Structures are given as C-alpha cells and as structure tokens.
C-alpha cells in the first residue's frame, strides 16, 4: 500500500517537473498581475476581486516584500553567495493555484527564470526568525543556491541547504501559542529519533527517494552540522557535484574522511536527541 502511494506520488512529481517549462511559459502571459517591487524582490499578486479566493491586501504585500528581502540577504550573506540579481515572485490565489502551478499548498522555484511560483495561503505562520511568513525561506534558498552554486546537486545538498537555512521544514500548530508555526529541525530530529527514522550521511547520499518528511529534516540537520563545524565556503564546494565526488572531496575540504565525519555526526545526534 505504502509503495503504491509512493509510486503515484513519483509519477505526479515527474509529470509536474517534466512538464514545467511549457507549463510555466504560458503563465507569464497572464497580464492580470499587480506588481510591487522592493529591494531585490519583484512581487506579482492578483488584483482585488480577481477570483473567488481572496487576493493579498496592501499590508500583506508589504509584509511579503519585507520577508522575502530578509530571506534573500540572509541566504546570500550567511552562505557567502555574492549574488545580486532580482527575484520574481508570482503569488497565485488559492482557487486558481492548483490548475496554474500544480499545487495549492505551496509552490516551486524555477532558477532558470529567477522566479518563485507560489500559492497565497491567506494564513501566515511564524518562522524560526519570528517573522509572519506567507511564502517562507525554502524556495528562495533553492533559487539562490541553484543560481550561485549550480544545478548539478544531490538531494542531500539541495534540500539540506534549503531546510538548514530555514531552520525548519513544514508547519505545525503550536497549542501553547495557539497558532501555526514552522516545525523546527530540532523538533523533527527528536521525532525521528523516537521513531528510528534518523538517516546517516551515507543514506542521505544513497537513498534520495525517501519521503520528504523523513529526508528533508535529516538532510537539514546534517548540513547545519557541517555549517556549524566547518567553513561554509568549503561546504559550498560539495553543492554542485555527484555523490561520489562529495565523498572524495571530504579530506581536502574538511581534513577528515566522509566516514570520520559521519561517525562524529552520528555521535552528536545520539547526544543531542536521546530517545524519549
Ligand atoms: Zn525543497
């Protein structure tokens, strides 16, 4: 049953990705966008009364522009990417998003176009930087890393980078705060530790087909560990290469083999997330 579910998901993902270029090419022809620009972000939103779903109002547009600029500079500066091109964002109303971009629960980035396509979800959530987020940091991280570091990445590096810089993956309801918040890497890793779903670095390299909720937080935790313990520019060198090359680059970049750092990392996880 589980396998069937996964394979259907794969087919869908494949269709969405393989159809991307033509699919998205027709989108920009839609003229009905309200365009607001600030800093490095050019935000396209639907005008009021465009569809049955609410379009973002002036305050929301202001918040989104402020947040996306914050993420842009955070990613660029903390990852030392030295990037300065503008990013386009197309924010679709909820009732048109599924047909227009293939999802109405989030979105995608297309680095070739320096564009993020996303759903306007009405409710914001609190991210790890204590901001009221609508789009969040994840897609911005994909876009800037692809454009600065390259497109020949492994899933470990790609999602690891996006989750590590976001400090979180997905959202959860905080019963004490009584609102939706980002689900942090720490919360995920404690959860995965309790359920024996901790992945080793070797598994991260060799089993990219694992479901998102297992793979992404694990990749984010490992990349955060590398960032904390080694120079970020050395970690960046692993971004645009194959799994085999990653393994062979460890001694020159970090002074330790892949296996040695894997052992250190697994020990660190054991100490940090003792089974509850
Ligand atoms: Zn991702």
Give the helices and strands as they follow along the chain: HHEEHEHEEEEHHEEHHHHHH
Shape: globular
Beta content comes to 15-25%
Number of structural domains: 2
Which structural class fits the helix and strand makeup? Answer: alpha/beta
Bound molecules: zinc ion
Number of helices: 12
What is the β-strand count?
A: 9
Radius of gyration: 19 Å
N-to-C CA distance: 29 Å
- What spatial order of strands do you see in the largest sheet? 1-2-3-5-4
Specify the biggest β-sheet.
5 strands, mixed
Report low-confidence residues grouped into runs of 5 or more. Answer: 1-23
Which secondary structure elements does this structure contain, and how are they paired or packed?
Elements: H1 2-18, H2 20-25, E1 34-38, E2 41-45, H3 58-78, E3 87-92, H4 94-101, E4 107-110, E5 115-119, E6 125-126, E7 132-133, H5 138-149, H6 155-166, E8 168-174, E9 179-184, H7 185-194, H8 201-206, H9 212-229, H10 232-236, H11 243-254, H12 258-272
Parallel strand pairs: 2-3, 3-5
Antiparallel strand pairs: 1-2, 4-5, 6-7, 8-9
This protein binds zinc ion.
Describe the structure.
The structure is a single chain. The protein is 51% helix and 15% strand. By secondary structure, the chain is α/β, with parallel strands linked by helices. The strands form three sheets. The protein has a five-stranded mixed beta sheet. The longest helix has 21 residues, at 58-78. The chain is globular. The chain starts with a helix and ends with a helix. The relative contact order is 0.10. It binds zinc ion. The site of zinc ion has 4 residues, from helix 5 and helix 6.
